[in-house]
Amino acid sequence: MSNTYDAIVIGLGGMGSAAAYQLARRGQRVLGLERHTPGHALGSSHGKSRVIRQAYFEDPAYVPLLLRAYELWREIEQETGKELLLITGGLMIGPSESGVFTGSLRSAREYGLYHEVLDAADLRRRFPQFTPGDDIVALYERQAGVVRPEEGVLAHLQGAEMHGAELHFQEPAERWEASPSGDGVRVTTAQGSYEAARLVIAPGPWAYDLFRELNLPLEVERQVLYWFQPTEGIAPFAPDRFPIYIWELEDGATIYGFPAIDGPTGGAKVAFFRMPDTFQQICTPDTIERTVHADEIALMREAIATRIPTLNGQFLEAATCMYTNTPDEHFVVGLHPRHPQVVIASPCSGHGYKFASVMGEVLADLATDGTTRHPIALFAPDRFLQQA
């Protein structure tokens, strides 16, 4: 079998699996390389659920990408028969001056997205599971919901193979080289050497080694996901009664959570989106602490005890994942500043998985055409080189 391809994709997690799928469906001969097994739980794209929303508080520039992401999630559902996207509605909660609330309101107004502004009394009446103080407000958006990350990765991998992609698992890329002429790449693994016209690198928390020559200011942060069994059972937390939510706390930390989507004994998931500084742990994929300790569970209980008190029941389980953050908390997506035949994708600073479907399209555009119609100027890799 030939070791020459149109495109090689390094990393088959959230972004890489979608890129392999989009490239293969365009008729490209694609090789995908992944260091672990399909849909593994050792990186960033796992944990049973991820928030998806349109009134994006991080920046209105993300909204057009989100609108296309919804369309593409439905497309891959239809092609593979997997259920990936569940619309539950969503609440962006916090003090009236909080970034979560004001940023969401800005995006909703700028793009004419359906939304409602709720004061604390409205929030308690509409969603009695929440018990906010009188100074808390919320933005409700109807189109927010849940994406299943493991199933999403597997769906994109299934779609890639259906369109002819060759996928190698448990075969990490050891190094890559770009031709100085800009017309090819070589990727080496323990199993062999592969050549292609284009390369897409989507390594998640393994980004530092593969982007080493750019010296990007990346920081990998350990995250913990928690599941609690509500004290009154899961019925009040069912998806038709309880939305996804993101709640910015008074101290600047932020929690987020989900309806009960994992059956009668599966509880409901909650986590910190931005941790209190004293609990933040910087790590690497090799050094991450996978054990979740009692003081961490206690910190999560403290956050929900007065805000979502009936969620604060039996602790069921916890899992760890990793955010790979940039200083401005925006993505790194675009052509390699020194090698135009190389596309780099992620880190996504902890809020990227919902975009995986559209990022697959963006990465395929960049790999085949060198440009994309999608607005990605905010994510330019060379912004950090310019600062340096």
Describe the structure.
The protein has 388 residues and is of the alpha+beta class. The protein is 26% helix and 28% strand. Strand 10 and strand 11 form a beta hairpin. It starts with a strand and ends with a helix.
Describe the structure concisely for a colleague.
This protein has 388 residues and is an alpha+beta fold.
Task: Give me the secondary-structure topology.
Blueprint: E1 4-10, H1 14-25, E2 30-34, E3 50-52, H2 63-80, E4 85-87, E5 90-95, H3 99-110, E6 116-119, H4 120-126, E7 136-141, E8 145-147, H5 149-162, E9 166-169, E10 173-178, E11 185-189, E12 193-201, H6 207-210, E13 219-229, E14 244-248, E15 254-257, E16 268-274, E17 282-283, H7 294-305, E18 314-325, E19 333-335, E20 342-345, H8 356-369, H9 382-387
Parallel strand pairs: 1-2, 1-12, 2-9, 5-14, 12-20
Antiparallel strand pairs: 3-8, 4-8, 5-7, 6-7, 10-11, 11-12, 13-16, 13-17, 13-18, 14-15, 15-16, 19-20
